[in-house]
């Protein structure tokens, strides 16, 4: 029979562990995604993802290979404490036994598992515990590039353990005021506070990274047979935030006590309340995960603890809700303030601020892509009609005659006045190839999903095949993309940008719709080995434009969502992995509040107002959650789990559309909330979440081959049906059906493309 304090609602669930011996140590990545369990009798450590899939098993033989003097056996010696970095990129493993090494160095060791590269190494030698016949219940914690390791001798050692460190550099050694073996270490990362325990007392101290001055310890609470500590930042309901204390109660019973966050910082010692107690339940260790659970090591296997008072969405319902919120954001920007139907403005504002963005092809494209995904995943009844309206507007087929201005080559104007289709006053009048590539991509994907919708097919054809002269926009030799078009046709050659960047979408379209020169250019862009790199972590290069200069994350996420050749390429899949792990490493090194991915978006005015953040330039240290989620484009759920941690911490923000979603948060100014968000900076994350919700949806809907044929489903003779009679009529009396300004044989061919597809179907005009 279990007991718990009034209001506590612990829910215990089994956690898979290979074998049946004592799970003497556990760890959970503070920002979610990873768990680890150590078995001392089997001398084995397992790393699993948050869905309990086994990622890595470290054997006794591997440990002995790095600690060759040890005589690890089937007893309590072996791995005795674990600590993940915030991101889960590194796992530190404290290992002890009672054998003295012949070299006179420390008799025990700390191993480091680099989860990114799957490599295990010896991080440090030290003395932890000199017996092999009982559990020492030691402790470790990592925060802000420092590993803290507690020993049975009462020492807390602080090692430099940044992402690039191959081995630990000892910075300081601390002791608690009352001495005693270190039984627990936990960190409140938001406040930069360490909690440390011996068997009878719990203390706190501010972590300053000034290791020349010992910390000032304050007694938090007293206890008996304390075995471990965990700081539950996102555990359970709102009243559950605080410190969890695991203690033994006799030989075969355990108890978890709770100290609220407020009481944990009381100037005088507090009395913990019992959160959970169970006779016959022997628990060895405890840690808190970023997904709202605790994990405990048991005499047999392990378990997770959640709390019934938790009203926040669990992970899978959150996936669906976050996706839905972004779809709400996007469809709410379709003519939101009385604009002519079908225009999509580029972004939304917070509820207290009027909207100010122009209409853009970019916003329209991402809205169409989101609507396609929503229909594929949720059978969204509104999607097809809204796609029809948006493509009709941008294809120049709206009934009011207001069309987006385009160059002679069909390059779209970037910033559009919905009232005229021309330039929005006060905004750059540019005709942008990167806006055009998104619009063409969305039109092609819509035509592929709704091939039998004549209005979508016709509008999409106008968008795709009205864009011409593709080869001219890729610079010969360098393969650079010209970013702007001239009104009379051709590129503005003063603005080229070499690979690698998101312009690969345009080059892919040029290969499909242009000549052989673009075929070669696309092949070059896809060859990752040709282009410069930058690295935050040695061995994890990220392909960029200029050597050593990092780029925004969204640049690599766009093609991961939309280009089949990129998605199928192992080297480019590695690009996203290297970005993800580099972001995690930066987060671990600098102690950020959230998993920090640098990408483009709104910033504080003194940080530029809008900034494409990179690992090399990131004013305000702002994480972009939408790009973090975008790193799940290849079905890796861990980045999404790390975004879920941010949701649990209340990082969502509200917009005028009624959407409440994860966007951007600053670590330098934690009170800062962006006043607006652009669709191109928001949509990508939801599309990657869609792949987790419905595996295969990206390949089936958004990353399919580009449409090869222009189609013009027009009832030329107005008889209520689109039939071969309409083709005969066009051949006899040519009409400009495809909108290229000429009435010629191309128009009849365009109509016949539609008829060939539908010769065995109902051809009633719609």
Tell me what you see in this structure:
- The protein has 3 domains: 10-307, Methylamine Dehydrogenase, Chain H; 315-702, Glycosyltransferase; 709-766, no CATH class.
- With 766 residues, it is an alpha+beta fold.
- Helix content is 27%, strand content 24%.
- Residues 761-766 have low confidence and may be disordered.
- The relative contact order is 0.09.
- The strands form 13 sheets. It has a 4-stranded antiparallel beta sheet, with no helix packed on it. It has a 4-stranded antiparallel beta sheet with strand order 2-3-4-5. A 4-stranded antiparallel beta sheet has the order 6-7-8-9, covered by helices on one side.
- Helix 8 (504-513) runs antiparallel to helix 9 (516-526) and helix 10 (554-562) crosses helix 15 (679-693).
Averaging pLDDT over every residue, what do you get? 96
User: What's the architecture of the largest domain, going by CATH?
Assistant: Alpha/alpha barrel
User: Into how many domains do the coordinates divide?
Assistant: 3
Q: Class of the largest domain in CATH? A: Mainly Alpha
- Helix percentage range: 25-40%
Poorly predicted regions are 761-766
Given the structure, what is the number of helices?
A: 18
Strand fraction: 15-25%
Main-sheet strand order equals 1-24-23-22
Question: Within the CATH hierarchy, at the fold level, what is the topology of the largest domain?
Answer: Glycosyltransferase
Give the terminus-to-terminus CA distance. Answer: 68 Å
Report the count of strand segments.
38
The shape is elongated
User: CATH homologous superfamily name of the largest domain?
Assistant: Glycoside hydrolase 144 (GH144)
Instruction: Supply Rg.
Output: 30 Å
The main pleated sheet reads as: 4 strands, antiparallel
SSE class:
alpha+beta
């Amino acid at each position: 029979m279990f007991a718990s304090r009034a209001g506590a609602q612990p829910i215990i669930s089994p956690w898979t562990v290979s074998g049946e011996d004592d799970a003497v140590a556990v760890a959970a990545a503070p920002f979610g995604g990873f768990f680890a369990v150590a078995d001392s009798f089997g001398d084995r450590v397992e790393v699993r993802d948050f869905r309990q899939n086994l990622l890595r098993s470290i054997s006794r033989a591997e440990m002995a290979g790095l600690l060759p003097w040890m005589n690890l056996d089937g007893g309590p010696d072996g791995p005795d404490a674990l600590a993940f970095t915030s991101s889960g990129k590194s796992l530190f493993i404290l290992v002890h036994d009672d054998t003295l090494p012949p070299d006179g160095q420390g008799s025990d060791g700390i191993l480091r598992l680099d989860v990114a590269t799957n490599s295990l190494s010896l991080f440090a030698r030290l003395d932890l515990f000199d017996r092999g016949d009982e559990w020492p219940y030691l402790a470790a914690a990592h925060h802000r590039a420092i590993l803290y390791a507690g020993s049975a001798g009462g020492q807390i050692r602080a090692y430099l353990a940044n992402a690039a460190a191959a081995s630990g550099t000892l910075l300081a050694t601390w002791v608690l005021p009352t001495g005693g073996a270190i039984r627990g270490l936990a960190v409140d990362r938001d406040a930069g506070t360490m909690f440390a325990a011996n068997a009878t007392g719990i203390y706190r101290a501010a972590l300053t990274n000034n290791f020349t001055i010992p910390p000032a310890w304050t007694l938090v609470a007293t206890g008996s047979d304390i075995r471990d500590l965990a700081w539950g930042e996102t555990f359970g309901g709102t009243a559950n935030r605080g410190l969890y204390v695991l203690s033994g109660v006799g030989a075969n019973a355990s108890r978890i006590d709770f100290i609220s966050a407020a009481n944990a910082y009381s100037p005088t010692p507090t009395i913990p309340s019992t959160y959970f107690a169970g006779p016959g339940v022997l628990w060895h260790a405890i840690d808190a995960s970023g997904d709202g659970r605790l994990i405990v090591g048991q005499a047999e296997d392990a378990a997770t603890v959640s709390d019934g008072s938790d009203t926040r969405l669990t992970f899978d319902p959150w996936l669906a809700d976050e996706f839905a919120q972004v779809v709400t954001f996007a469809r709410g920007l379709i003519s939101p303030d009385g604009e002519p139907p079908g225009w999509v403005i580029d972004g939304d504002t917070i509820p207290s601020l009027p909207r100010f963005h122009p209409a853009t092809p970019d916003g329209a494209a991402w809205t169409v892509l989101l609507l396609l995904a929503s229909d594929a995943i949720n059978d969204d009844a509104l999607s097809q009609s809204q796609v029809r309206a948006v493509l009709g507007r941008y294809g120049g087929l709206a009934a009011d005659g207001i069309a987006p201005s385009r160059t002679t080559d069909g390059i779209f104007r970037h910033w559009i006045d919905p009232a005229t289709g021309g330039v929005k006053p006060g905004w750059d009048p540019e005709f942008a190839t990167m806006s055009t590539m998104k619009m063409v991509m969305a039109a092609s994907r819509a035509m592929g999903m709704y091939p039998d919708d004549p209005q979508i097919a016709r509008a999409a054809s106008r968008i795709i095949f009205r864009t011409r002269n593709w080869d001219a926009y890729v610079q010969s030799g360098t393969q650079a993309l010209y970013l702007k078009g001239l009104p009379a046709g051709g590129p503005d050659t003063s603005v080229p940008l070499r690979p690698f960047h998101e312009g690969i979408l345009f080059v892919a379209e040029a290969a499909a719709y242009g000549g052989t020169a673009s075929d070669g250019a696309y092949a070059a862009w896809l060859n990752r080995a040709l282009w410069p790199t930058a690295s935050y972590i040695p061995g994890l290069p990220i392909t960029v434009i200029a050597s050593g200069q990092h780029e925004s994350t969204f640049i690599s996420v766009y093609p991961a969502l939309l280009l089949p050749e990129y998605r199928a390429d192992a080297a480019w899949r590695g690009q996203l992995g290297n970005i993800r792990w580099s972001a995690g490493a930066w987060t671990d090194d600098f102690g950020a509040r959230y998993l920090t991915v640098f990408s483009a978006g709104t910033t504080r005015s003194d940080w530029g107002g809008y900034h494409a953040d990179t690992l090399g330039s990131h004013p305000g240290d702002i994480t972009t959650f939408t790009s973090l989620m975008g790193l799940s484009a290849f079905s890796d759920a861990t980045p999404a789990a790390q975004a879920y941690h941010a949701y649990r911490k209340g990082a969502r923000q509200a917009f005028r559309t009624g959407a409440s979603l994860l966007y951007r948060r600053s670590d330098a100014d934690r009170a800062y909330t962006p006043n607006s968000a652009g669709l191109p900076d928001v949509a990508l994350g939801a599309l990657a979440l869609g792949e987790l919700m419905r595996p295969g949806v990206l390949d089936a809907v958004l990353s399919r081959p580009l449409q090869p044929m222009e189609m013009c489903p027009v009832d030329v003779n107005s008889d209520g049906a689109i039939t071969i009679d309409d083709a005969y009529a066009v051949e006899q009396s040519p009409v400009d059906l495809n909108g290229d300004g000429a009435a010629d044989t191309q128009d009849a061919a365009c109509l016949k493309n539609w008829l060939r597809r539908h010769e065995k179907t109902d051809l009633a005009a719609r």
